[in-house]
């Protein structure tokens, strides 16, 4: 079989698999996720900590008392009760504070006592404190769990349990980078994983009285396994609670998406098996992806230029390809003497990656404040909404992040018949009409 025939055969096999799993996703509704739609899937505070904290709160809006908290305690005890080590976590009594999420223990970090900060999730009664540091993508802060442990030790000898929650259950680094306080006092910190509890206990005895040496014992947990399994246990208790059940299903699907456990990932693994048997052809296709994107991009903007020409709209092509802002600047004929233009622009912090597409009215530097305010007022209360700031008035395009989204590129390839093209043209015309008013 000739090389190009092998490529065609490979693409056909991949297409068959892709369509099969796309159909499965369509039948199950897997691709519909409210957190993804709202662009909240990576938000540690307002998505993940908020949902987990609300479930752990016996007084939460779910109205189910301590059932979800008890399930969490039971699950954690199963995970960390081994022959060598046993976690002494108990069921919680009445909580001493309903502030579960984002509890500030000190506005500023106190390096004299190595405490302070904002705890992501904290559950506390009269006997014990459970603290969770939630890390999706954020970087670790200096001495973060040590500061929380030191805070917990001020709570009248309550038992404290520190959990380090990440996507895959990674460990904290064992030794913190040195930190210097006033008078150049060096703070030394150590993080002991739960399976080194005996080392932690011995270290605590040896370092007793040394105010510059700090340490904590922590339990690593993951979204991939632990939060997923706990949410599944919570779901078992919600058969007669449809609103809670459907919300948990949505959240469970989000966790699976973030940890590569969705149908799409199963599809990827099946495709990889085919690619392994066609490595030369796979690399040849891979090398063609970026040139393909570039061609589709230029063809797409050529269609916009053709529209502009018919409407007597002049175009500035100098930013058609630029590392920060790239796209077109358009000037309608009747705007030739006016201090603003229309932009169809990708605005990205990641170089030339086709993300952040919007259409805007851009103010020139020489526009007067009076004229700017006058234009801004025209766009107030327009539905769908336009965003307004000192530099421009804009609306994001629905298909705004092309990047590696094949479905959007398929739409882009349709040119004038695609939804992306139609939405851009419609927005351009809307901006022109509003400016006239």
Largest sheet: 7 strands, mixed
The radius of gyration is 28 Å
Measure the end-to-end span. 64 Å
Structural class based on helices, strands and sheet pairing: alpha+beta
How much strand content do the residues show? 15-25%
Low-confidence stretches: none
Strand order of the largest sheet: 1-2-3-4-7-6-5
What is the approximate shape?
Answer: globular
Helical coverage, percent range = 40-55%
What's the count of strands? 13
Mean pLDDT: 88
Number of helices: 13
Tell me the series of helices and strands, N- to C-terminal: HHHHEEEHEEEHEHHHHEEEEHEEHH
Q: Brief description of this entry?
A:
The chain is an alpha+beta fold. It has 13 helices and 13 strands.
Helices and strands, with pairings:
Layout: H1 3-28, H2 34-37, H3 44-56, H4 67-80, E1 101-110, E2 115-124, E3 128-135, H5 144-152, E4 159-166, E5 179-180, E6 186-193, H6 197-206, E7 213-222, H7 223-235, H8 242-258, H9 263-276, H10 279-310, E8 313-316, E9 325-332, E10 340-347, E11 357-363, H11 369-379, E12 387-388, E13 392-396, H12 406-413, H13 419-436
Helix pairs in contact: 1-9, 1-10, 4-7, 7-8
């Amino acid at each position: 079989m000739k090389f190009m025939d092998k490529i065609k055969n490979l693409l056909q096999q991949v297409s068959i698999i892709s369509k099969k799993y796309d159909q499965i996703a369509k039948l199950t509704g897997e691709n519909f996720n409210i957190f993804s739609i709202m662009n909240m899937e990576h938000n540690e505070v307002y998505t993940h900590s908020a949902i987990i904290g609300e479930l752990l709160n016996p007084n939460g809006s779910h109205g189910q008392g301590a059932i979800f908290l008890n399930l969490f305690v039971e699950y954690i005890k199963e995970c960390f009760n081994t022959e060598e080590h046993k976690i002494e976590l108990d069921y919680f009594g009445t909580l001493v504070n309903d502030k579960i999420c984002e509890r500030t223990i000190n506005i500023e970090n106190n390096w004299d006592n190595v405490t302070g900060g904002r705890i992501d999730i904290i559950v506390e009664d009269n006997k014990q404190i459970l603290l969770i540091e939630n890390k999706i993508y954020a970087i670790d802060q200096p001495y973060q769990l040590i500061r929380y442990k030191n805070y917990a030790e001020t709570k009248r000898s309550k038992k404290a349990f520190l959990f380090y929650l990440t996507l895959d259950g990674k460990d904290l680094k064992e030794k913190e980078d040195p930190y210097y306080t006033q008078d150049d006092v060096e703070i030394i910190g150590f993080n002991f994983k739960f399976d080194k509890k005996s080392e932690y206990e011995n270290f605590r005895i040896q370092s007793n009285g040394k105010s510059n040496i700090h340490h904590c014992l922590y339990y690593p947990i993951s979204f991939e396994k632990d939060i997923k399994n706990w949410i599944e246990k919570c779901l078992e208790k919600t058969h007669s609670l449809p609103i809670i059940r459907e919300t948990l299903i949505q959240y469970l699907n989000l966790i699976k998406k973030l940890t590569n456990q969705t149908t799409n990932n199963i599809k990827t693994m099946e495709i990889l098996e085919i690619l392994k048997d066609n490595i030369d052809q796979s690399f040849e296709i891979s090398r063609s992806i970026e040139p393909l994107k570039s061609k589709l991009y230029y063809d797409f903007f050529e269609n916009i230029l053709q529209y502009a020409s018919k409407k007597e709209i002049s175009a500035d092509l100098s930013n058609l390809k630029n590392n920060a802002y790239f796209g077109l600047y358009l000037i309608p004929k009747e705007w030739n003497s006016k201090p603003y233009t229309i932009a169809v622009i990708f605005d990205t912090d990641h170089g030339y990656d086709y993300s952040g597409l919007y259409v805007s009215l851009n103010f020139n530097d020489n526009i007067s404040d009076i004229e700017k305010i006058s234009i801004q007022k025209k766009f107030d209360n327009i539905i769908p909404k336009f965003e307004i700031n000192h530099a421009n008035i804009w609306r994001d395009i629905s298909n705004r992040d092309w990047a590696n989204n094949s479905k959007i590129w398929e739409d882009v390839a349709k040119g004038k018949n695609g939804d992306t093209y139609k939405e851009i043209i419609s927005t351009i015309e809307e901006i022109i009409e509003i400016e006239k008013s």
